[in-house]
Amino acid sequence: EEFGHLLHNSVRFIKFLCLMILFTHICSCLWYLTIEWAACQVPDGFQGPYVSCGCGPDQKCEDWNWLIKYSGGREAYDLTVQNRSHYLISLYYTVVTLTTLGYGDITPSNDLEFAFSTVLSLLGAIMFSFLISSISSVVSQGNAVENAVAARAAELSDLCTLRGLPKSLRVRARAHLSYTLG
User: Matching InterPro entries, A to Z (predicted)?
Assistant: First the structure.
């Protein structure tokens, strides 16, 4: 029974881990897609950290997003060449945000990216809370089983003493209890 309990908890942990990997992948893809969704245009030569997207009709406009800002400017930013690197950067940002580490090296640069980052941070807090409660639950379930076995062993010992059973019978009774309760 103890092995079954351990196996159940291991399967539960592996399922949670797989769900977290899938969730992180989806969030990474969505973070990357904010580049397309925002379609943020700024005046040519803009270098600020944050902008509420907008470019006048008489101005020369360029794209502005978290990847351009992180890449060090528009010259280093090539959406067609570095898809694997872009995914890894997105994955890194998502993991750092979901785990509430938040190094600050990749930051949102427009309204949509800030909104997405806020939701991602809240989901990270919820995920962290769920993880802590799951670990606490597994530990408390393990303690409950151990406490139940100890209580039964104490009851058996009291019964054997009360009835004045011989030592050989007490040993066999404890062995049977250990075998049946795991």
Answer: K_chnl_dom, K_chnl_volt-dep_EAG/ELK/ERG, KCNH_animal-type
